[in-house]
């Protein structure tokens, strides 16, 4: 622990400013105290895990930064979600001067340091998926050799988040920023043809995708069909469709999970249907975790004995998977005994 962070690593941050972006989306500019500044350094595209108390219950949720480090501030943007406990609480009650608890930035949805010769960033955002994309775009244009192409889809014009900031980004950077706005109310939901037309002029690029599940699936499928290498397609999912454990081959009938954490080994009984992370927690252990959607990589551990199946993986690359790494929040054991090591 550093500064005034608690045992779970959460530190109090003051809300410096509240910005109403749309009728159902708000940005919070957070004031990071000097004693916590090093822990809250971040890369564009990462997210914060917030812990808030709603109705007497501590709840954790992850929200992407919409600011970039070059701007010198830390800002998250939260869209109201029907039935969303924390997103609605933030939109309804967050006020300047309030205190909110956050864990340090996490996430792998960041600009790649070695673009392998690629100078273009091609991004696809749907609805509130613009939040991390905005962070990436602001960081990318700070490099005078990079171009940014952004396809932004919304249901209607009144739901566009960052309408004015996006227009300013285009105006300030001229031909280095191309913005295409798609509105379902005019052209229907985004189809492969629109994506193909948008990427046709793109050069050797990395592609970043964030938004509703069906939108992301369409974009990913179209990019891969167009010949884009999978290693150059980067996804950030806010939610993951639940997969039925019964659909996974657990014929190995797992009985126990051995957990190597903090130089200690703990053996836990396995309850069918639980993920490895749930098993770790049931054993009373505190393992690293954040998004719990398979996007950030915080909960990764290596399977050193036995086997496990990942329901979703938007964080680990093929080499890491080949070496036995799994996202414990998304992994079900598929052998009688599984040993995992949090190295």
Give the gist of this structure.
Its cofactor is FAD. This protein has 343 residues and is an alpha/beta fold.
Overview of the molecule:
The chain contains 8 helices and 18 strands. It has 343 residues and is of the alpha/beta class. α5 crosses α6 (213-225). It is globular. The two termini are 19 Å apart. A 6-stranded antiparallel beta sheet has the order 4-3-6-1-2-5, with helices on one face. Helices cover 20% and strands 33% of the residues. The protein has 3 domains: 11-106, Translation factors (Elongation Factor Tu (Ef-tu), domain 3); 120-236, Rossmann fold (3-Layer(aba) Sandwich), CATH 3.40.50.80; 245-341, Beta-grasp domain (Ubiquitin-like (UB roll), Roll). The protein has helices at 85-93, 130-140, 163-173, 184-187, 192-199, 213-225, 276-282, 318-322, and strands spanning 11-22, 25-31, 47-54, 57-64, 74-79, 99-106, 120-126, 147-154, 177-183, 205-210, 233-236, 256-261, 264-269, 300-305, 308-310, 325-327, 331-333, 337-341. The longest helix has 13 residues, at 213-225. The model has no long low-confidence stretch (mean pLDDT 90).
């Amino acid at each position: 622990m550093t500064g005034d962070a608690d045992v779970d690593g959460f530190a109090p941050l003051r809300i410096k400013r509240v910005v109403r972006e749309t009728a159902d989306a708000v940005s919070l500019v957070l004031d990071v105290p000097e004693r916590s500044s090093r822990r809250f350094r971040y890369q564009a595209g990462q997210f914060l895990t917030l812990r808030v108390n709603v109705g007497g219950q501590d709840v954790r949720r992850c929200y992407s930064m919409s600011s970039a480090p070059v701007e010198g501030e830390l800002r998250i943007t939260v869209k109201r979600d029907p039935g969303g406990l924390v997103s609605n609480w933030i939109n309804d009650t967050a006020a300047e001067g309030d205190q909110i608890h956050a864990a340090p930035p996490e996430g792998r949805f960041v600009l790649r340091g070695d673009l392998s010769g690629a100078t273009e960033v091609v991004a696809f955002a749907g609805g509130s998926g613009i939040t991390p994309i905005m962070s990436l775009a602001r960081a990318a244009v700070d490099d005078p050799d990079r171009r940014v192409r952004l396809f932004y889809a919304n249901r209607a014009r009144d739901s566009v988040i960052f309408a004015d900031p996006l227009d300013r980004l285009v105006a300030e950077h001229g031909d280095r920023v191309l913005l295409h706005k798609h509105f379902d109310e005019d052209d229907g939901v985004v189809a492969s043809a629109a994506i193909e037309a948008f990427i046709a002029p793109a050069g050797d690029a990395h592609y970043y995708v964030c938004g509703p599940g069906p939108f992301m699936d369409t974009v990913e499928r179209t990019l891969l069909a167009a010949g884009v290498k999978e290693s150059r397609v980067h996804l950030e999912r806010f939610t993951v469709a639940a997969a039925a454990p019964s659909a996974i081959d657990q014929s190995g009938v797992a009985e126990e999970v051995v957990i190597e954490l903090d130089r200690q080994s703990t053996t836990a009984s396995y309850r069918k249907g639980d993920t490895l992370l749930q098993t770790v927690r049931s054993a009373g252990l505190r393992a690293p975790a954040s998004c719990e959607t398979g996007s950030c990589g915080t909960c990764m551990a290596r399977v050193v004995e036995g086997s496990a199946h990942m329901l979703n993986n938007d964080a680990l690359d093929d080499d890491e998977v080949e070496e036995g790494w799994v996202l414990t929040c998304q992994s079900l054991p598929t052998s009688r005994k599984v040993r995992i090591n949090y190295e």
